[in-house]
Amino acid sequence: MLHLVILLPFLFAAFIPLTKYLPRFHVGWTVLPLPAALFLYFLTRIPSIQAGSNLMTSVSWMPSLGVDITLYLDGLSLLFVLLITGMGALVVLYSIYYLSKHSEGIRQFYMYLLMFMGAMLGVVLSDNLMVLYGFWELTSISSFLLIAFWHRRERSRYGAMKSMLITVFGGLAMFAGFNLLYVMTGTYSIREIVAVAGSLPGHSMFIPAMLLILLGAFTKSAQFPFHIWLPDAMEAPTPVSAYLHSATMVKAGIYLVARLTPVFAGQSGWFWLVSLTGMVTLIYGAFKAIKQSDLKGLLAYSTISQLGLIMSLLGLGSAASFFAGKEEAVFYTMATAAALFHLLNHAVFKGSLFMVVGIIDHETGTRDLRKLGGLMSLMPITFSVALIGAFSMAGLPPFSGFLSKEMFFTAMLNIREFDILNTGSWMGIFPVAAWLASVFTFVYSMILVFKTFGGKLQKAKLDKMPHEAPLGLLLSPVMLVSLAVVFAFFPELVSNSLIEPAMASIHNGVLAPEDTFEVSIHFWHGWTPEIFMTIGVIAAGVLLYRSYSRLRVLDRGPSGRKTLNHLYDGSLQLLERGSKRLTNAYMTGSNRHYLLYIFSFFIIALLAALIGQPGISFGMEHYAPLSIYETAVIAVMLLAAFAVPFAKSRVSAILFTGCVGYMVTLLFVIFRAPDLALTQMMIETVSVILFLLCFRYLPKLKKDKERLRFKLPNLIIALGVGITTTLIALAAMGSSPFEPISEYFLKESYKSAGGKNVVNVILVDFRGFDTLFEIMVLGIASMAIYGLIHLRMEPGQTEAGKVRSGNSASRLQSNDVILQTMSKGIVLIILTFSLYLFFAGHNHPGGGFIGALMTSAALVLMAVAFGMDTVRKVIPVNYRLITGTGLLIAIVTASGSFIFNAPFLSHAFGHFQLPILGDTELATAVLFDLGVYLAVVGVTMNIILSIGGDKQWNS
User: Fold this and answer.
1) pLDDT, tens only, 135-148
2) Which DSSP symbol is given to 901?
3) Nearest to 168 by CA among 235, 108, 252
4) Which of 274, 575, 620, 775 is the S-S candidate for 935 at Cβ 3.0 to 4.6 Å?
């Protein structure tokens, strides 16, 4: 079921383009049921997870590399999937009323949103680090597309590129850290790594792995100094900001730190890096939020600050691992409980506030605080939502943010007792910094509410007269702020069902096996230090807010000082200038220079490998003697190759080249390799036709006499390449350190794959992955050729117009009556033979690839005899669709093995009693071969018809 949960968003995204046939409905209504249904499903999993029954499912993917798609649902991942799906449903509902159904790119928007949702679900459910990394980078790609949704805006493109560069950079560092963990443990499974975590700290790669993984987490969760991407990402549509930047993407780094706490906690480096980075981010983000004039900018920096708060709490919570198995451990785990509770609260109040800002922008046409004010009476419901969300963010009662802020203060006060690292009184900095950051948080929360809704209405500065938002826009934020009230008065709804199981996942092994975590959250604990800290925050915050108005912070322009953004922009410019200089140094425009680079590297790298590899021999004593037939064929082949550069016309050069290919075919016949001979013959035939089609567009070949100068580098390169290639061939034949793999194929061809034709079995089974990627490359190449040919046309011009206007004699059609008469029967014979090759290929010479080439040869013969128009009229198909269909069949067949919990591209075969045919062997490899057959036919004919077309055949 978990695999289906991740797959469903991608499937929905694939079918969204079909909604264009439902013009009366907003696309969002077709998307909304998915996150809502997934949210309800995960709600039903709460009792079992709460009881300790975690859910795990696995599908084998690349077992030889230790990479399987293993999904694991425990307390921590349950908390995050509920955030992802619950917020996803509310954001989709909000977007239905925020974005018009006629908005440009509305379908792409929901495709990207669903792709991001699926990727986030994959991140928090994956147990395998490599699979987690794949989904991690997919979140970066999909968020890039979402941030750049309004791609015509320069700031949107800049923000999208900035976010992707920084987060992908961190992702690559994290990828390296994951591989270091694999080197240390021999597994990519998080559960298995956690099981052996106690033996890792002494390893030399432990600290580098920790630093690299934290780099990935800090960049994703916008921790200082990598936070600079988040404010620029506010160029995204408001629903994107509400989803990505309050509850999902920015929480991915938080999730990673929490998930790997059992591995790295208990190390002083982890404690200091996570806690101090979080505290610095908390204070810096809160201070910067006060200075913002754009409402979204204020929320962006407040998000940075709140993420720093959660990160610092996770760092402080890791102190419990220093007391594993002792009573003191529970004392410090309360920081983790505070982090998890605030994680929920932050999603609630920040998601609602982003939606409120979107409503303000939607109804007033601006987010500039200097133009806003006096909206309280005009937008009372929006004001109420903003008031609850902002007060919860400020940590004021009676809202849930107050409870998590009190728990935050408690954790900061508790850490003063942590003296195992001999820090003395330095731990007292934490509560002081926490209090100062809370003051700033109070101030920017008040700014958000009262600078927007209080004061006088400035009609002259607004683009339109504001009014209350429609009910559809208010539904989602109202539901979110309602949770801020519900969680405040009934915190046990989440403390018992979500927070305690999540803590058990994070602090695995901290408590004794028979003990469980108990999280108690209440409004009143007496006159505690936390209460006095809150009173101090309110008092200092009110004073600062009142002086804030006098200081006129919003009216101040940029200071002109160097910032991290200047450093980022300067670094990019430096890289661009450096890469341009380097590229210009070697990209001279000379083909001779490029060939010198390639062949020099070829010679140096391969000769060094040959010389440095022990046991290499170049003996020829085991070679078989040449027969007279082989000698004759080789002689003709060499003469034809030698004649090519001396040919007086391009047609002669093509014929000589074809002669070389047909001589190779004869060699395969002599060596008793019918599959290779058939393939070579068909490829050579189609290639000759293709060359003729291409060269007919070129002017006649002209030869000029030129005196060639002797160039020593050319001689050295030519001799070096020839000697290197010869030595490699001799070494390959005379000194292979491995047993010939051919013996394995001969033994296992029928036993494991049910085929007697070893060559075809290798193509569709043993090396099916290679074949799959080869037909993909062919498909891409044929589409590129088609696109390039159409790009050369004038707007509105057809292929017919281009060919006929260029050369009226260039039509590919023979006037030979004998050829036309004979080809009618020959084409039918070739097509019949091609079908025989396809069906017989698994046990006899043939197969999908050879059959496809034979079919293409028949169609090419028809085109030569009767013209391209006849081919299109007789077989009116779109060969690009044929190519796509073939690729789809091959991929679906290859993926079908997942249903039976078998690796990708696993095939099955068996004998069945069929009517008339009797005992018949059937193999799934034939279906894969069908995909190959269709793809190759589509590729070949797409290229032939594109280059030789004399009419627009698919407008």
Assistant:
1) 999 999 999 999 99
2) T
3) 252
4) 775
